[in-house]
Fold:
Amino acid sequence: MEGLQIRPAISVDIPELVAFDHGYSTDHVWQMEYRQVQEEVTVAFRQVRLPRPMRVTYPRDPARLVDEWTRRAAVLVADLGEVKRGYVALAESTAQSCGWVTDLVVNLRDRRQGVGMKLLGAAHDWCRLRSVSRLFVEMQSKNYPGIMLAGKLGFAFCGYAERYYPDEDIALFFSLEVA
Structure:
């Protein structure tokens, strides 16, 4: 998206960011298969096409951003003119020198136009400027658009957690070495 600017969030941005449609539609999911035979455990994820598109709600309450944004290491906003197009929230783990994308949200009308890619690029730059060595992204196993974006940007699948979100959905983790 030509002319898109990424900048740190300020307090007056937060109500508009909270009002974004944080949900998404998907026609694929990553289905988990868990198998245990004696002392061997096998976990596999398989991409499965759904019979029809499915609407997925965001796994956390977007209103929590009102209270949490100042406790995040960074919240970066994508603007085009005066209009906010998306945001990325970052946490930092100093013990492992890692950055975590806790939220990546693009306003519904602006999706599939490169806004998410630019926000993740800005998150990568933010990590590099702080000598953070690895950037992690977490997402629901149903978030096929997010999974595809992470793969396109070079993130590699690195793990999962069952019942991670308040709705007990599985979280998938992807990471990228920050050069």
